[in-house]
Amino acid sequence: MTLKSTDTTAIKPEERELARKVLEQTTLETELTERELRTANLRAELGAFERRYLHFVGSRYAELDELKAQIAEQLAAEQPGNDRAQQAAHDARARANETKSAAGERAETAPRAFEASPEMKRLYRTVAKRIHPDLTSDREDRAKRQLLMSQANEAYERGDEMQLAKILTEYEHSPEAVQGEGSGAELVRVIRRISQMRGRLAEMEAELQELLRSDLFQLKSRLDEAQQFGRDVLQEMVAKVDEQIEQARLRLAKPKAGGYQTL
């Protein structure tokens, strides 16, 4: 009697393709997570640097421009018939208001430079890998992930490790985290995720290059490079503006009447 051999372990074509696509997806997930981390880190560093710059230098420029505006207005009051003096006072006041608005209110304590711990970076990678919006094709799930990813970026910039962990825990236990069944349907979802991730990678690269080309990044790079040679350019800038402020205060206390002088 001959027994008919049956191979119940044969892999179906869609299962083989699914395995291949899952491997591709995993590779892209890692690349996207690293790109997200690099971009989030750069945003956080530039944000912290901008706050420190405005705290130390921007607020002083605002004070200097305010003193210059007061000097110009004083000269204009002494020479009501001098159109040039009147225009100079108007321009100086507008510039002072603009500088003050840009600098904002000066905080009592100096902002800290941004530096993420290895644990913070590891946690961010995990969060990005699990909840990034481009890892789902479901509209409702995507909307929720977008909100959570935005919250995760804010928490990362603040250095709030507990909030990052909380975001991850809440999503891991949400209904949206449940995966569907069936190799055919899953293959379609994986293919769509791959397409979404490739699009997101292109967007992230464009955003990263924009940050690297920004004036703020160029300024930070120059200051960082100078610091390697023992120079604190930020403090040098502060000292220079402080000197100009002192000169402006002296001039405001003893204005020179009888003629308009360019500030």
Task: Explain what you see.
The chain is 76% helix and 0% strand. By secondary structure, it is mainly α. It has one domain.
Describe the structure concisely:
With 263 residues, the protein is mainly alpha-helical. The chain contains eight helices and no strands.
- Radius of gyration equals 29 Å
Helical percent range?
Answer: over 70%
Overall number of strands = 0
Give the biggest sheet.
Answer: none
In whole angstroms, the N-to-C terminal distance is 110 Å
Characteristic key phrases:
263 residues, mainly alpha, 8 helices, 76% helix, 0% strand, elongated, disordered C terminus
Write the layout of secondary structure elements.
Elements: H1 13-78, H2 83-103, H3 118-131, H4 139-158, H5 161-172, H6 183-213, H7 215-228, H8 233-253
Helix pairs in contact: 1-2, 1-3, 1-4, 1-6, 1-8, 3-4, 3-5, 4-5
